[in-house]
Design brief:
There is one protein chain. The chain has 201 residues and is of the alpha+beta class. Helices cover 18% and strands 20% of the residues. The strands form four sheets. The chain has a three-stranded mixed beta sheet, with no helix packed on it. Strand 7 and strand 8 (151-152) form a beta hairpin. The longest helix is centred in the N-terminal third of the chain and has 33 residues, at 6-38. Residues 4-11, 23-29 and 31-67 have low confidence and may be disordered.
């Protein structure tokens, strides 16, 4: 009985591998097209510039988080103890009690809390928040920081996923930190009506 030699099997194996490779590529491209069509493709978080900075800078400051820019603020109703303000990537933002222009959170504070910087142009709000309450303030280092109801906004290093609220009611060496209500007060305080007219302040 004659058996086929290795040399006669090899071309057939190469053809099979090539066919499998082509099929795998086609399936991958098809999945990408379907993801783009049904909206499952997620855009990367908005950044103050086009590059992804390193996680920490000199002194351990949160360079990556501090470089986050927000085109808008929105209301989040899941994850926290009540409706709270988040950025356009659904990441909770916090106020520091008594902080007016970022001067209460500098130096080592920036290893735990990252200022929310505005994008190019003016930041905006989505439904459920008041356009009259959003603004910016100049920090001691000259950078601009987004505010809501005159509270400078921060991200917390302990929040690693959208909806995390581990910074709420946190007390540390810089003070007391809170989520904000859509009315612009610390979550947990009594709130009034949502201000909709332009602020006269």
């Amino acid at each position: 009985m004659n058996f086929p030699s290795r040399t006669t099997l090899a071309p057939r194996n190469h053809r099979t591998l090539a066919a499998l490779g082509a099929l795998s590529l086609a399936l991958t491209l098809g999945a990408c097209d379907r993801a783009a069509e049904d909206g499952t493709h997620m855009e990367p978080p908005a950044r103050a510039d086009g590059e992804m900075p390193s996680p920490t800078g000199p002194g351990g400051t949160l360079v990556t988080d501090a470089a986050d820019a927000s085109g808008s603020l929105r209301v989040m109703s899941v994850g926290g103890p009540g409706d709270f303000v988040a950025d356009n990537d659904r990441r909770a933002v916090y106020m520091l009690e008594g902080d007016l222009d970022g001067d209460k959170c500098t130096a080592s504070c920036l290893t735990q809390w990252a200022p929310l910087f505005p994008p190019t142009g003016e930041p905006t709000v989505t439904d459920g928040l008041s356009p009259a309450l959003i603004g910016t303030v100049e920090r001691p280092d000259g950078s601009q920081q987004i505010t809501y109801n005159e509270h400078p906004l921060y991200h917390f290093v302990g929040d690693t996923r959208p909806g995390d609220v581990l910074g709420h009611q946190r007390n540390d060496e810089w003070g007391d930190w809170y989520l904000l209500t859509p009315q612009g007060s610390a979550l947990g305080e009594e709130v009034g009506k949502l201000e909709t007219a332009p602020s006269s302040r």
